[in-house]
Write a structure and sequence with these properties.
By secondary structure, the chain is an all-beta fold. It is built from no helices and eleven strands. Strands 2, 4, 5, 6, 9, 10 and 11 form a seven-stranded mixed β-sheet that branches. Strands 1-3-8-7 form a four-stranded antiparallel β-sheet, with no helix packed on it. The chain is globular and about 40 Å long.
């Protein structure tokens, strides 16, 4: 199994940028496709973006496409989420997650391992 720890959350003004990191330990990081999800107060957890095991393939939700960039460094066992042009509606707890599913996937039930989350707050 793999353990995941997110970091990098915080308070930022609308239009600003933030980079989240997710450090993995345990089983070989490159065995897993990875994803970022978020959950705003009173809402269900939703898919943000996913990346394949090698990093060659990525997939974004329409709400973050062209503003967020997912990447990974398998040598450092770390997943990243670069967020720019942030909006107040991006405010949420952001979670990284790992899956052994063979392709990038937005389906939450495909992800078996989750981090504890990091809070991102975007002020208007």
């Amino acid at each position: 199994q793999v353990q995941l720890v997110e970091s990098g959350g915080g308070l930022v003004q609308a239009g600003g940028s933030l980079r989240l990191s997710c450090a993995a330990s345990g089983r070989t990081f490159s065995d897993y496709a990875m994803g970022w999800f978020r959950q705003a107060p009173g809402k269900e957890r939703e898919f943000v973006t996913a990346i394949s095991r090698t990093g060659r393939n990525t997939y974004y939700s329409d709400s973050v496409k062209d503003r967020f960039t997912i990447s990974r460094d398998n040598a450092k066992n770390t997943l990243y989420l670069q967020m720019s042009s942030l909006k107040p509606e991006d405010t949420a707890v952001y979670y990284c997650a790992a899956t052994l599913f063979p392709v990038t996937t937005a389906t939450i039930t495909h992800y078996r391992y989750w981090g504890q989350g990091t809070q991102v707050t975007v002020s208007s």
